[in-house]
Amino acid sequence: MTSDAWTRIYCGPAPLPNELWLRWNLDPGLLIALTLMAFLMRRSPSGLLGVAALAVAFVSPLCALSAALFSARVVHHVLIMAVAAPLLALVRPARKESSPGPALVMFTIVLWAWHWPVAYDFALGWVPAYWLMQATLLVAAVVFWRRVLHPQQAEGSALLAILGAWMQMALLGALLTFAPETLYAIHATAPLAWSLSPLADQQLGGLLMWVPAGLPFLVWGVLVARRGWRTLSERPA
To answer: Which residue spans traverse the membrane (predicted)?
Structure first.
């Protein structure tokens, strides 16, 4: 592969609105990796759903759209960290119960580090860095959810960890929403083709991270609380 092939935006250049649905990512290496993951998790419904979520993130036109819009990149990252990761974590929970605190710290550091403008622009402009970003986001999230969704994890600490994960993401979203200027040079012009100014696109991304991104965390929180309620109700009087 030539050096020019590395120094590009993965999924290709930012798409125009009229060509979005033609922009499926059929990268052979990616398709082989997803197929292998699906084969390895063929006996796990949650694992297969997790692989399907990754396919939406990386194969569907969402991948191309996230090259154009920061707001689409937010949806992409939420899909990886709050949908695919917990589904994959259910395949093999942590070996033993442990505090989710350290995993939450790692989850937070990785998310915030990759949204530092220099790191973000670097990752989107160089394919190896792009995959380093995606891999670290996914691994940090899977480690976090393996702790939180462990069958023996105390429901109280699990719920607090889920709340903490959403709150730190919401804080980052709020900071992006109220930033007085655009932060990401990689999205300096492409949003204009979508009738958005770069700042409006960044604000929309911040709002998505701030509020709607909390919905998958809420769903997992409800499932954890339901597990705790079932355990409590099954205890002998």
So the answer is: 48-68, 74-91, 103-120, 126-145, 157-179, 204-225
